[in-house]
Amino acid sequence: MPQPIPLRPDASPLALFGYELRRYREEAQLTQEQLAKRIAFSTSLVGMVERAARRPEKAFAERCDQALGLDGVLTRLSAVARRETDAEHFRTWLDIEQEAATLRAWDPLLIPGLLQTQSYARRIIAGEPGITPEQADQQVAGRMRRLSILSREDPAIIFALIDEGVLRRPIGGPDNMREQLAYLIQVAEHPTVTIQIVPYSAQSTCGLLSAFVITEQHNCPQAAYVDCSPRGRTIEDRAAVSELARRYDTIRAEAYPQHLSIKLIEDVMEQWV
């Protein structure tokens, strides 16, 4: 019998569900076929879910909880795996982002979401009108889960352009900003992450209207997410994505190289007292 494919539970919400389902099943000393009979689903479906090749439906997770004598943990995890806790307009992008080989991010107003600390993200999310503490907690957790793209066996390559003014915008106060800027310095040490600051003196204005992220596969732009109010949108039209890529290159042409960018971040961090 072939050995089961190893899963990294931190690779994605889908991988976490598959990992936990396999762990609970093996603790119950059940084969995939035995579990499938108990929950009235096919053995092949159980196998695909455990390999993170299929999203678990709610009924599937509920029956697994019942068959394995659990307290609903798989049902709760399945909601995350199906991205039900994420904003509806953002779900398509999250799937694209998880599969991206390269991500090119630009933000004129905030630290890009992939590089935010939990405290920084919470202050941003909690500022949304009408959001409840529970909704804020869910969105913060979802934002933190996105960082799994750096812990994959083939971590995504990330190029992040950040406007200098973002370093000086007081999101959450001095302590929060020192923590966030220290994290930028730390994550810039990751071998697949490049952070560049676009200085006040930059003449390019083509990126001032919105933040955006571009995904690439095989050095070719594939899709983009444009952040705008009241909700952002995913773009998969190749012509539009290529236009955003040209804008990104124009902005990056005036950015500091990474070593000077890190020096600027360090200098601004010392000013947050």
Describe the protein's architecture and organization:
Helix content is 48%, strand content 14%. It is α/β, with parallel strands linked by helices and 273 residues long. It folds into 2 domains: 13-81, 434 Repressor (Amino-terminal Domain) (Orthogonal Bundle); 88-271, 2-Layer Sandwich (Endonuclease, Chain A). Strand 4 and strand 5 form a beta hairpin. Helix 2 packs across helix 3 (43-50) and helix 10 (174-187) packs antiparallel against helix 12 (258-271). The longest helix has 15 residues, at 13-27. The protein is elongated. The mean pLDDT is 90.
How do the helices and strands line up, and which of them pair or pack?
Elements: H1 13-27, H2 32-39, H3 43-50, H4 58-68, H5 73-81, H6 91-99, E1 102-107, H7 118-126, H8 133-145, E2 157-163, H9 164-168, H10 174-187, E3 193-198, E4 211-217, E5 220-227, E6 233-235, H11 238-252, H12 258-271
Parallel strand pairs: 1-2, 2-3
Antiparallel strand pairs: 1-4, 4-5, 5-6
Helix pairs in contact: 1-5, 2-3, 4-5, 7-8, 10-12
**What is the overall silhouette?**
elongated
Strand order of the largest sheet: 3-2-1-4-5-6
Please count the helical segments: 12
- In quaternary terms, these chains amount to single chain
Helical/strand content category: alpha/beta
| Beta strand % | 5-15%
- The strand count comes to 6
The pLDDT mean sits at 90
The second-level CATH architecture of the largest domain is 2-Layer Sandwich
Task: Outline the biggest β-sheet.
Answer: 6 strands, mixed
Poorly predicted sequence stretches spanning 5 or more consecutive residues: none
The topology string of helices and strands comes to: HHHHHHEHHEHHEEEEHH
